[in-house]
Design goal:
Length: 136
């Protein structure tokens, strides 16, 4: 990776365990280094299933290095919560972007691409391209 600041990645899931596991998988497949900041924002603040705006905003702040923040979400209300935070305009970093991508494959593609020093547009495109990955 170059000396450029890395794109940060936030993984939003209804489950803290799912978000953490996908983050771990993506980091591992990208070489396991801590070069790319990845944060899991899963579940509710009390540990239940759901989505927490507070956890999402904290995760985004923790990975923001000034190069942009790619946010991937799993389902329904996770997506809606991120969209609402983006619409409010002051809760997430100005460079935060919700990426339309499959959660697991998109997260891996985003982290692997971010490790190369790619910018936010390239990271988002790689994650979105994961929709085309065929398994059969």
């Amino acid at each position: 990776m170059s000396d450029e600041k890395p794109v940060g990645i936030v993984l939003v899931s209804h489950s803290a365990e799912v978000a953490a596991a996908v983050a771990e998988l993506a980091r591992g497949l990208a070489g396991g280094g801590a070069v790319v900041p990845v944060a899991a924002a899963g579940g509710t603040e009390d540990g239940g299933l759901g989505t927490s705006a507070k956890l999402i905003t904290a995760a985004a702040a923790s990975v923001d290095r000034g190069a942009g923040v790619a946010v991937l979400a799993d389902l329904g209300s996770a997506v809606l919560t991120v969209k609402a935070l983006l619409a409010e305009g002051d809760e997430l970093p100005d460079t935060a972007r919700l990426v339309d991508a499959p959660f697991v494959e998109g997260a891996v593609a985003a982290v692997v691409t971010a490790v190369t020093g790619a910018d936010l547009d390239a990271v988002a495109a790689a994650a979105a391209e994961a929709y085309t990955y065929r398994k059969v």
